[in-house]
Structure formats: C-alpha cells, structure tokens
Design a protein that fits this description.
two-stranded antiparallel sheet, about 60% helix, 4 helices, about 130 residues, mainly alpha, 4 strands, single chain
Length: about 130
C-alpha cells in the first residue's frame, strides 16, 4: 500500500561538491544507473527524457571531473555500439548510494520531527 503524502517523510537529496565547479548528484548518478541498465547512453537519456547530446555531455563531465572514465563506449556489433559502466563507474554509483543511505539514516530523526512540525502547522492553519 502506498503511503499518503502526509505520512511520508520529507526526503533528503545528496549532492557531492568535489570542488566549486564539479558536482555529482542524484541526476548524474541516475544517468549512470540507466546506462548500466539500458546498455547505451542514448537509451539512458531517453529513459530520463533527455537528448543524447545532454546525456553525453553529462557523461563527459563525470569522466572529466572524476579524472577516471565512468562510462566506456562499445563499438560495432549487429545493432551498433553501446555503453557500459567501467569498474570505476560502478564504484562511483555504489559509493554515492551508500553515502545517500547513510545520510538519510543519520537525518531520519530530524526528518520525522520536521514532518511532525509541518503537520501541526497545517492543522493550526486549517
């Protein structure tokens, strides 16, 4: 059964600033996960309603800011090429998701308190 919006916790989103101009966040990680699932940059982009160019630009940015290739393009084959995550790319996704889980766990008590306060404020306003 789905939780109602009033019973679900506020969510936490994690963005890692590697330096002032280099960030890894939920969108780039989801793109990498989609590349891993779909087997291509273009299919991953389509799954996110994103153009191939935008998806490729984000992959290029990830590779550049991490100074390691997270995605490796595959060439040839009957249906053309594709793309796979490198071992570094898989590690990046796993490490980000672990950081995200740990942060959510650490913030759970405060998120519950925030939900409670917001719920009380709605009742008073109503």
């Amino acid at each position: 059964m789905l939780k109602s919006a009033t019973n679900s916790l506020p969510s936490l989103s994690v963005r890692i600033d590697l330096n002032p101009e280099a960030r890894i966040g939920p969108g780039k990680i989801l793109l990498l996960e989609n590349i891993d699932t779909c087997g291509s940059i273009s299919a991953a982009g389509r799954a996110m309603d994103m153009s191939y160019k935008r998806a490729w630009d984000l992959v290029d940015e990830i590779n550049r800011i991490c100074r390691h290739s997270a995605v490796e393009r595959q060439t040839g084959g009957k249906n053309g090429g594709g793309a796979i995550l490198t071992p570094f790319g898989k590690s990046l996704v796993a490490r980000y998701r672990k950081i995200e889980r740990d942060a959510a766990s650490a913030a759970r008590k405060e998120l519950q308190a925030l939900r409670s306060e917001i719920g009380r404020a709605k009742k008073r306003a109503g």
